[in-house]
Write a structure and sequence with these properties.
The protein is mainly alpha-helical. Helices cover 53% and strands 3% of the residues. A hairpin with a 3-residue loop joins strand 1 and strand 2 (35-36).
């Protein structure tokens, strides 16, 4: 029985920004523009763990927003163009920049999820009257555990 091949740990920046498989670094991660594939065609890694949610959009808008505003202000203060130039040039440039950074950021977040072995969140049952929720519920559970530890076992 042959064992699975060992894969070296790859850079999340390298594989993520190139939108490659976080395990082998060869197979494509995305299908079309932003759809994550079911599995890697090269090494067979199941991408079921991958769920970056709104992370790429948040990071993309933040990065493009800061850099874009710096460029916008530099352009405005040096050239002082009329407002229509901003409507025709600056706005489309910002929108295209946001769209351009989404796939690499999504690849990077998926690679980070793979490296850190991200799993879907697991929620406890709230029990009666919402006990077990928040810091109050945690204190109640800790007190119950402490009482159980103090009782002598028969």
């Amino acid at each position: 029985m042959a064992s699975d091949p060992e894969y070296p740990r790859l850079s999340t920046w390298s594989t993520g920004l190139r939108c490659r498989c976080p395990r082998c670094g060869k197979g494509p991660l995305l299908h079309r523009y932003l759809k994550i594939r079911d599995h890697c065609p090269e090494c067979g890694l199941d991408y079921g763990f991958a769920e970056p949610a709104d992370g790429p959009a948040f990071f993309g808008m933040s990065i493009v927003g800061v850099v874009g505003m710096m460029a916008f202000m530099a352009f405005e203060f040096t050239v002082q163009p009329p407002i229509w130039v901003h409507m025709v040039v600056t706005l489309p440039l910002l929108a295209l920049s946001c769209l351009a950074v989404l796939p690499p950021l999504k690849g990077w977040l998926v690679a980070e999820q793979y490296v850190h072995k991200a799993a879907p969140p697991e929620f406890e049952s709230l029990g009666r009257h919402g006990e077990g929720y928040g810091w109050k519920g945690q204190a109640e559970r800790a007190a119950r555990r402490a009482r159980k530890d103090e009782t002598p076992s028969a």
